[in-house]
Amino acid sequence: MTGRSRLRTAFAVLIAVPFIVPFLFLISTAVRERSDYISSPGGLPQSFTLDHLVEAWTEADLGRALINTLVMCLVACLVCASTSLAGGYFFRVNRQRWTGPARLILGAGYAIPMIAWLIPVFVIVAQAGWTGDLFVAGVISGVSSLPFGFYFIHTFLNQSLSDETIEAATLDGAGVFRAFWSIGIPMALPALAAVLALTFVWSFGDLLVASTLLQANPDSYTLTLAATTLTTREDINLQGQAAAALVSLLPTLVVFAVAQRALKQGFGGGAEK
């Protein structure tokens, strides 16, 4: 190993430590006996138990909450991925005077704080009687990730889809939808996979949309919202919350582990035409 490689490895370790230590502390808190945790909250665990995981699973009904979360994430991923793909391809093949400002306006939507538009959306949803609906919450969650997904896929296609390819498809007689299906979608698959993975992770860990739109219906609680039921005025139950957080964290880790290649291709695959 050369000196440069060692420097890179050391730098990577330094970056990873702030992320790994809290995760290890979360696991330690969730699997320690209560007396062990009380005696030394920040110390190394001296005991092991799964009681907190079992209690969190039953008391917060995490099984149902997990299914609800997956349903909401599926809807969010479909909304964000399909709309981002269509919008990104449209602005790639259409370069008119108005498309530049329109693209900037759509991309700038990511800079608007969610709370600024979520409350008006909640008023509309409440008036329509749609609060507590997982499908509606999934649509709103997908829309919140839409500016990023649109900008990401458009940037990827702008680098990987050449003007010559578009012109060749036009000369071959391919219409807009045929070119989109045969060229746009295959070319955008790496970026689309990255958008799906990130949208899933963001929606899976969401609390703001869930607490705003699903609070009225306990049967529709997601994992993050169900975990809040473990806390009462009499007992904060940090270990129970840590156990619930660990349960909600594991699926996102699985998605990241599976989607590593897609994320790498999505963020760097468009650099070369």
From TrEMBL:
<dbReference type="GO" id="GO:0005886">
    <property type="term" value="C:plasma membrane"/>
</dbReference>
<feature type="transmembrane region" description="Helical">
    <location>
        <begin position="103"/>
        <end position="128"/>
    </location>
</feature>
<keyword id="KW-1133">Transmembrane helix</keyword>
<dbReference type="InterPro" id="IPR000515">
    <property type="entry name" value="MetI-like"/>
</dbReference>
<keyword id="KW-0812">Transmembrane</keyword>
<feature type="transmembrane region" description="Helical">
    <location>
        <begin position="12"/>
        <end position="31"/>
    </location>
</feature>
<dbReference type="GO" id="GO:0055085">
    <property type="term" value="P:transmembrane transport"/>
</dbReference>
<keyword id="KW-0813">Transport</keyword>
<feature type="transmembrane region" description="Helical">
    <location>
        <begin position="179"/>
        <end position="204"/>
    </location>
</feature>
<keyword id="KW-0472">Membrane</keyword>
<comment type="similarity">
    <text>Belongs to the binding-protein-dependent transport system permease family.</text>
</comment>
<feature type="transmembrane region" description="Helical">
    <location>
        <begin position="134"/>
        <end position="158"/>
    </location>
</feature>
<dbReference type="Pfam" id="PF00528">
    <property type="entry name" value="BPD_transp_1"/>
</dbReference>
<feature type="transmembrane region" description="Helical">
    <location>
        <begin position="238"/>
        <end position="259"/>
    </location>
</feature>
<keyword id="KW-1003">Cell membrane</keyword>
<feature type="transmembrane region" description="Helical">
    <location>
        <begin position="65"/>
        <end position="91"/>
    </location>
</feature>
<feature type="domain" description="ABC transmembrane type-1">
    <location>
        <begin position="66"/>
        <end position="259"/>
    </location>
</feature>
<protein>
    <submittedName>
        <fullName>Melibiose/raffinose/stachyose import permease protein MelC</fullName>
    </submittedName>
</protein>
